[in-house]
Amino acid sequence: MGGFKEAQYAWKQAKDELLREIHHLGYPQEFGILIAKNLGSPKAIRRMSSYLRQVKPKKPEMIADEMLAIMSEIDAWKRKKEAEALNAERNRILLRDFDE
């Protein structure tokens, strides 16, 4: 499979797994689809599926809270990586100027 097809397959697998877990807990499929869309990546969706299997939340609010926590952690990780990249570029420029 090509890269694009593999990515599509990963998304489908992760979403299907999440929808199974949502169904086992008695929530509507639309709720799972909304969660998958908000999480934004197969890795995050699988993390949510794992949470659902382990915790078996009794209220939809608990699921929404976990979704928001996962999204927040992903956002913080992205900001950290952006800051590291900017810092690396700044250091490269400073070292270049120092060498000249």
Task: Outline the structure in words.
The protein is 87% helix and 0% strand. It is mainly alpha-helical. It has one domain (3-99). The protein is elongated. It has 4 helices and no strands. The mean pLDDT is 92. The longest helix has 40 residues, at 60-99.
Q: Report the sheet with the most strands, covering strand number, pairing sense and barrel closure.
A: none
Distance N to C terminus: 49 Å
> What fraction, in percent, of the residue positions are helical?
over 70%
Total domain units: 1
DSSP strand count = 0
Strand proportion: under 5%
Q: What would the principal axes of the Cα set say about the shape?
A: elongated
Written as H for each helix and E for each strand, in order along the chain, the element string is HHHH
Mean pLDDT: 92
Q: Nearest-angstrom radius of gyration?
A: 19 Å
**Helix/strand class:** mainly alpha
Count of alpha and pi helical runs: 4
Q: Unreliable runs, pLDDT <50, ≥5 residues?
A: none
What is this entry, summarized?
This protein is mainly alpha-helical and 100 residues long.
SSE order and pairing:
Elements: H1 3-24, H2 29-39, H3 42-55, H4 60-99
Provide the descriptors you would attach to this structure in a database record.
100 residues; mainly alpha
